[in-house]
Structures are given as structure tokens and as C-alpha cells.
Automatic annotation (TrEMBL):
Keywords: Repeat, WD repeat. This is Uncharacterized protein. It comes from the Eukaryota. InterPro entries: CUL4-DDB1_E3_ligase_receptor (IPR052254). It comes from Rhizophagus clarus.
Length: 99
């Protein structure tokens, strides 16, 4: 299976994670973008996010309820944590499907 659009050499460590509930794999590439593909078909299922200022070295799907972390925030739902250089970034992946 091939993931069209992903840019990565086999000798460089970039992040990826699998969401078995949604049958999605998220893969970071050398272009500092994160792409989302169907595990079943290999097709892109969401628009890429990024580019970021540095490589995305780790990814983790999760459900966030920011009210538990900080009552001043109001962010909930499915998303992905990303490690970019020395920062951890949250990205909601709600309605960003490829048309």
C-alpha cells in the first residue's frame, strides 16, 4: 500500500500514529506537514496540516477536554498532539475531510 503525498526518507525519524477507532494513520513528512490516510485504502482522508517551522517528531491521537486542563479554555473533541522541536501542539481534527 502506498500513501500518496507523504514525503519521507527511510533514514529520518518522523512521527506517526494510528487511530484504530477511526481506521486512520497520521504520518509526518520531511515537508513538515502531517497527512491523514485510511488504513483500509491508503487514500488521503483529511487535508494535510502544516507546514510547521520544524520537523514533527511525534504524533498521538487523543480526545481532549481542555476544561480539565484549564477552565479558561473551551476546546473539546478528537485531535492530535504533535511534538515540533521542543513544543507540544494540539490540533483539532474535526471537520477537515478531503472532498
Amino acid at each position: 500500500m502506498k500513501f500518496e503525498g507523504n514525503v519521507n526518507s527511510t533514514n529520518i525519524q518522523y512521527g506517526f500514529d494510528v487511530n484504530l477507532k477511526e481506521d486512520i494513520v497520521a504520518i509526518a513528512g520531511q515537508d513538515n506537514k502531517v497527512r491523514f490516510f485510511s488504513i483500509n485504502t491508503g487514500r488521503a482522508i483529511r487535508n494535510p496540516i502544516g507546514p510547521f517551522k520544524d520537523k514533527v517528531s511525534a504524533l498521538r491521537f487523543c480526545t481532549l477536554d481542555s476544561m480539565e486542563l484549564n477552565p479558561e479554555l473551551d476546546e473539546r473533541g478528537e485531535g492530535i498532539w504533535m511534538a515540533v522541536e521542543k513544543e507540544f501542539l494540539w490540533w483539532s481534527i474535526g471537520n477537515n475531510d478531503v472532498e
